[in-house]
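FAQ: What does the model actually see?

It sees only this:
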Amino acid sequence: MINPAWRAGVMLMTPDRTAAKLKLLSVVIPARDEEGCLASTVEHLTVELRLREVPHEIVVVDDGSTDRTWEIVQNLKERLPAVVPVRNVGEHGFGRAVICGLDHMQGDAAVIMMADESDDCRDVARYWHSLNEGWDCVFGSRFIKGGGTTDYPWTKLFLNRLANKFLQFLFNIPLNDTTNAFKAYRKSVIDGCRPLIAPHFNLTVEIPLKAIVRGYSWTTIPVTWRNRRTGEAKLKIKEMGSRYLFICLYVWLEKYFSRGDYAKPAHHPEAEAASVTHTR
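And it is asked to produce this:
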């Protein structure tokens, strides 16, 4: 059972040690015009998860690519059975691609990962083990001890720190890297945060903020990030400011005015035991 404590006005939680052990990790990778780096990302991830004995599938979502990305995904599937090729045939956008991947996942936990090798494959295995400690969510931070960034453009870094300080203040949370897409969730959290409405990179704040506001347990681990070495960054800061703000205010209104209508369902072991006994 979650054991909440309070420190400086912020609720802290401990993992649910009685939570069921996870059976399959789904790594969701949205990809648009990533022919230069996608294969190495998936190959390195596969090697790492095999070495760490993490049962997994890799759901690669082609989001309307105009290069060889879809062909590369299909070739990867022929060599690596864990690869699940998915094509987003609807409207495009980072958020829509991730949601499409989450809709197709078969695992009971998910990690959202970038296609450009900016996220460290070793951190994916660490996410898996942390989730199996009983946490509902595990958030990576590049800005705590043990984390780090390489070749982060200074303008984006300045805006990143400013935005995350704003979110810390607005939601009164200690998490200092909410905007980082690279995070892990139990499937129950993904389902509990639906409907997911952010079509673009603002999905990176919608899911964690909803999870926190709705009462799912979470912890933070240090992760590392390095700037892409091939291809073009898809995040356009000038196009995203108002979209981020909309999602933040949307979740903030839920926090203070929804009266708990969307909160995580209460865990009742006695009722679950009775239900199991009744169905035998």
